């Protein structure tokens, strides 16, 4: 679940598999992606269905609207190799944004790239919005879940029947968490009342008893889990999560500057590789955003994400989640996912 300006890189944050990848397969896929990325240096062809134009790297800038969450498009703002990969073009970061404002920055022409959740991306392209995804930020799902509020009396998912769950918005990550968790448990998600609210209000609503539970992710999940008396009911690792983070650009930018999109993909792979050895890249970003020590300690226990390409496996994952979105009633029909993605390993 960002915008870009000159000499500033703006990143948007914010992210599974029906046929779930194993951790080993993820590592292999990541290494193959890195090898594919090297091949990009020798190729000026477009990624997937996009990129018939080449970038004028003498003058171009890629503007990134980054999110207030520690995805790799956000943490790249601190890495010189992001600039090096795009040189002689430049990258500019602006933010932090919440996901909706980041998308608005791109749509208004003030940025070129951002991040969101794969589910939000599916919603966008189902509405025929001009977005192209170029990298999946995959994690095993332990950083998404449902937490019961203190003194709610809720011990199981079924205990939530007739009660309230806070989510970010209909069709977004929180809504997906509720429907997928309940479906996996053989329960009826329509028996709970979902309350939409800004993630900035989650903590107060949760700790004050305004809602009985919260379905959320990343630092908001960590905050809920760290609340005295709260109980984690389920995390996405347990129910077959398909909703992860994804990095996107405007369709016009993908068509006009495929080389810069490829370069940004390579930079994301480098950041992912670096984080496997130095996960403090993630926790330091949360500290920069003002997270408490308790929240940072919990975030440090979450799976370290990996950047994966949107190759045949990545496309299959997105199409499986799109089918879930139809099944859950979030969208009316399957979108043409293939025309909205770039395989930057080619």
TrEMBL record:
Record SUPFAM superfamilies: Periplasmic binding protein-like II
Protein name listed in UniProt: Alkanesulfonates-binding protein
Keywords (A to Z) from UniProt: Signal
Gene Ontology CC annotation, any one: periplasmic space
Main location: periplasm
Pfam families: NMT1 (PF09084)
Top-level taxon: Bacteria
Domain annotation SsuA/THI5-like: ranges: 91-280
Signal sequence range: 1-49
InterPro entries listed in its UniProt record: SsuA/THI5
Gene3D superfamilies the UniProt entry points to: Periplasmic binding protein-like II
UniProt similarity note: Belongs to the bacterial solute-binding protein SsuA/TauA family.
Cell location: Periplasm
């Amino acid at each position: 679940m960002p915008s870009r300006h000159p000499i500033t890189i703006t990143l948007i944050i914010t992210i599974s598999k029906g046929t779930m990848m194993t951790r080993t397969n993820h590592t292999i896929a990541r290494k193959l992606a890195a090898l594919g990325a090297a091949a990009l240096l020798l190729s000026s062809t477009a990624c997937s269905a996009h990129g018939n134009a080449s970038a004028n790297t003498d003058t171009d800038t890629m503007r990134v609207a980054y999110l207030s969450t520690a995805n790799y498009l956000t943490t790249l703002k601190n890495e010189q190799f992001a600039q090096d990969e795009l040189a002689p073009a430049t990258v500019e970061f602006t933010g932090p944004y919440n996901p909706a404002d980041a998308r608005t920055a791109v749509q208004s022409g003030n940025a070129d790239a951002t991040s969101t959740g794969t589910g939000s991306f599916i919603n966008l392209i189902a509405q025929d919005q001009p977005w192209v995804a170029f990298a999946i930020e995959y994690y095993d799902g332990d950083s998404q879940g449902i937490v019961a509020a203190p003194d709610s009396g809720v011990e199981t998912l079924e205990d939530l029947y007739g009660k309230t769950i806070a989510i970010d918005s209909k069709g977004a990550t929180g809504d997906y968490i509720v429907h997928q968790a309940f479906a996996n448990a053989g329960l009826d998600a329509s028996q709970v009342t979902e309350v939409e609210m800004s993630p900035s209000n989650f903590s107060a609503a949760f700790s004050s008893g305004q809602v009985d539970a919260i379905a959320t992710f990343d630092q908001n999940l960590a905050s809920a889990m760290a609340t005295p008396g709260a109980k984690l009911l389920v995390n996405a690792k347990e129910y077959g999560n398909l909703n992860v983070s994804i990095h996107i650009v405007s369709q016009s930018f993908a068509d006009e500057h495929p080389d810069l999109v490829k370069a940004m993909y390579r930079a994301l792979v480098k950041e992912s590789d670096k984080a496997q050895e130095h996960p403090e890249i993630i926790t330091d970003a949360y500290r920069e955003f003002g997270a408490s020590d308790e929240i940072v300690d919990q975030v440090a226990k979450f799976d370290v994400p990996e950047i994966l390409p949107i190759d045949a496996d990545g496309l299959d994952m997105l199409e499986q989640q799109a089918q879930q979105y139809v099944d859950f009633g979030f969208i009316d029909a399957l979108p043409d996912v293939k025309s909205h993605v770039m395989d930057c390993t080619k």
